[in-house]
Design goal:
By secondary structure, the protein is an alpha/beta fold. The protein has 14 helices and 16 strands. The radius of gyration is 20 Å and the shape is globular.
Length: 414
């Protein structure tokens, strides 16, 4: 009996549009080119001067007025602005027209871990320095995390289910997994799903620094984030957004859409172990991996590529690598794109899912930036130096968050 192609079935979900706004550039083309070059976007950040850590990965040249409009520039926090820009690109890429679609059948699901922290910090300073009268009436609408999905709905005319997922650094992947359920149970015909975060602020950076999560290579920012490297010492904080347009494959075929790839499986779990540290046994991650592959109809030997969570922290990389080696073996080509883009927190899972789609579509695995000497305890085929070209039928994107929250997506070729 011939085994069916992985990820092909009645519940198959097609990716018909992508949008990216990252430290490597504004738009899918610039981000993909930057990731494939494998050079870090990290730099000294004047806005963090005088703090324990003053390096970050921010979006170059982003202008709220130019990229999302004057009204959005005045009424939205940066995390919403980045997300609106990415969503507009994704919808345009899909070939769908928000002016003619049935908005009641279009859902929006966005992952966000922090919300409008830049607005919160700025308005708190106003309260302390100038008193209550100086605090903006827009503080709460700009701050609360759910507003990013609300802004996308208003911008796109999408009046279907409207949700924000918050699973820390797994939030973007959780959003995409939630979108799969909405499509498969018939609640929506189209879902715009992804993540957005703008957490490069003095208080957030100081908080991460105080807990020892950030790299202290302040004199060489571009070399600071080193996933899977022997000398890794923490991540570089970043910002950005990744958005995907998802449809049932049958619907995409019926309208003649250009399908980039398919989201074939999703698995979620909890470590139930520690507030911030990964479970060294990897029990929760293994459960999420097994679930995602089983739902995709994929066996471990069929996985060609893994876009790893790979934060560049000593414990995280070691724990993830151990699970990957145990469950998938040494076969898949592994990369971590956080070496280039930094860690975008709640947006990371969505950005990396989009990059995994591109990897499968183009048969190209981007290199892991700054991997000079692979940790000898990490027995994986980690791609470094230059892109690796190979046929990719099945890929996995891992995302893990504080609280032990795990989300795994399986992407298969179109």
């Amino acid at each position: 009996m011939t085994r069916p192609a992985p990820g092909r079935g009645p519940d198959d979900i097609a990716v018909t549009g992508l949008g990216l706004v990252t430290a490597a550039g504004i738009g899918v083309a610039d981000t993909w080119a930057g990731v494939c070059r494998g050079r870090s976007a990290a730099a000294t950040d004047p806005g963090l001067a005088g703090l324990p850590v003053d390096i970050s990965c921010t979006v170059p040249g982003f202008s709220a007025r130019r990229h999302v409009g004057r009204r959005s520039a005045l009424t939205q926090d940066r995390f919403s602005q980045l997300s609106v820009a990415a969503a507009r690109e994704a919808v345009a890429d899909s070939g769908l027209d928000p002016g003619t679609w049935d908005g009641a059948r279009v859902g929006v699901v966005v992952g966000c871990g922090l919300g409008g922290v830049a607005t919160w910090e700025a308005q708190h300073r106003r309260l302390l320095d100038q008193g209550p009268q100086a605090v903006s009436a827009l503080l709460i609408p700009m701050l609360v995390p759910n507003m990013v999905a609300g802004h996308l709905a208003m911008d796109l005319g999408a009046s279907g289910p409207n949700l924000v997922t918050a699973t820390a650094c797994a939030s973007g992947a959780t959003a995409i997994g939630t979108a799969l359920h909405l499509l498969r149970d018939g609640s929506c015909d189209v879902v715009v799903a992804g993540g957005g975060e703008a957490g490069v602020t003095p208080l957030m950076v100081t908080g991460f620094a105080q807990m020892g999560a950030l790299s202290r290579r302040l004199d060489e920012p571009a070399a600071a984030s080193r996933p899977f490297d022997r000398d890794r010492d923490g991540f570089v904080i970043g910002e950005g957004s990744g958005m995907l347009v998802l449809e049932r494959a049958a619907d995409a075929r019926a309208r003649g859409a250009d399908v980039r790839a398919r989201i074939a499986g999703y698995g979620a779990s909890a470590d139930a172990h520690h507030m911030t540290a990964p479970d060294p046994r990897g029990t929760g991650v293994l459960l999420a991996l097994r679930t995602a592959l089983a739902r995709a109809g994929v066996v471990p030997d069929e996985v060609d590529h893994v876009n790893a969570h790979g934060t560049s922290t000593p414990l995280n990389d070691a724990a993830e690598a151990a699970v990957l080696r145990k469950f998938l073996g040494a076969g898949p080509a592994v990369t971590s794109t956080k070496g280039v883009l930094g860690h975008t927190l709640g947006a990371a899972g969505a950005i990396e899912a989009a990059l995994t789609v591109l990897a499968v579509q183009h048969g190209t695995v981007p290199p892991t930036a700054n991997l000079h000497e692979q940790d000898p305890d990490i027995d994986l085929d980690v791609v470094s130096g230059a892109v690796r070209t190979r046929k990719l039928d099945v890929a996995v994107s891992n995302s893990f968050g504080f609280g032990g929250q795990n989300a795994v997506l399986v992407v298969t070729a179109a």
